[in-house]
Amino acid sequence: MVHDNPAIDAVETIWAGKLRRYSGEGWKQLLDLKSQALNVRDIFRTLRGIVQSHVLLRRIRPEVVFTRGGFVSVPVALAAKLLGIPYLTHDSDSTPSLANRLIARWAALHTVAMPPELYPYPAGKTIMVGIPVSRHYHKVSASLQHEFRRELGLDGYGQVVLITGGGNGARKLNLAVVQNARYLLTAFPDLKLVHIAGRALQKETNLLYDELRLGKARQRVQVYGFLTDMHKYSGAADIIVARGGATNLAEFALQAKPVVVVPSSQLIWNVKNSEALEKRGAVLELNEEQAEQPERLGRLLGDLLADEAHRSALSQRLAEISSPHSASRLATIIIQTAAKE
What we know:
This protein is α/β, with parallel strands linked by helices and 341 residues long. It has 2 domains: 26-131 and 324-339, Rossmann fold (3-Layer(aba) Sandwich); 142-320, 3-Layer(aba) Sandwich (Rossmann fold), CATH 3.40.50.2000. Helix content is 45%, strand content 12%. It has 13 helices and 10 strands. Helix 5 links the parallel strand 5 and strand 6 (191-196). The longest helix is centred in the N-terminal third of the chain and has 28 residues, at 33-60. The chain is elongated, with a radius of gyration of 23 Å.
C-alpha cells in the first residue's frame, strides 16, 4: 500500500502472533485454557509471518532491518536472519521487550534508551541512543520557562506543578493528586496545578476537584483532557508528576525537569523505568499504594517545592541521561550498519 508520506515507500502487512503471559500469576496461567489456545494459534501465525517476511525481504532486499520490538518484529527479524540481512533492535524501556529478547541473539546491534548496563545484551553490541522525540523538547532555561508561562497565562503564579498520566490519563494518579490538592493549595497560596487527566477522565476529574469545595483556590486548578503543546506546559512547570512511560521521561529529561514518578503497578516497564532512574537519583518515586496514603504525595511535593536545591539536583541528574540528538544518532548507526554489508 502506498503511503502519503513521501519518506515512506510502502506499508506492508504480515501475520504475527504474541505470547500471552500474566505477571504474578505463575503456574496458574497454564490453566487458562483460552489463553493457551490463543498462544498455540499465534505460533502458527508467527510461522506464516516468517514466510511472508522472507518473500517480502527477498523482493525489496534491504541492507538493514530496524525493529522497535513489537511482536510483529519477530517474524521479520527471523526472516532477515535466514537471508543474512543484519538487523538492529531498539528498546525504549529499561526492560527489553519479549520480542527483542527472542531475537536478540542474532541482532547486529542493540540500541537502547537508558544506560547499557541495565540491559541483558552483550556490552560490545549495546549502544545507548535514547528515544527520538519531538524537536520541541530541549533544555529549558529560566528565561524560556518564563516565556512559556507568559504565553500560557501562567505568569501570575509563583509555582506550577504539572500532572500527567500519559495520553489516556491515569485514574489512580488523578485520584491521588485530587486527594492531595487541598493540602498543596493551602500550603502554597501562589501554586497553580495543571492537571492533564486524559480525554475520557477530564469531566470526572473536574467533578472530583469541585467536590473538594476549595473556594477561590479552585481557580488555581486547571484540568485538561489532552494537550497538543505539551512541551510548553512541561517547560513552564517547576515540578512534573508523571507515570513511568519511557517517552515522557525522555522528554522531561531533555527539558531538565524535576519529576515525581508514580508508576502504574500494572505496567512492569513503568515500574522498572522508575526504579532505574530513582537509583540514579534522577527522579523521586512513590508507588501507587504510597501515593494513596493521606497527604503523602502532597507532602513530598511540598518539600520539593520548598527546596530549590533539591529540584536543581534532580533536574541535573535526569538531564545527564538524556540524549539530545537521539534521532540523528540512531539514523547514523542504521546507515553505518547498512554500509558494512
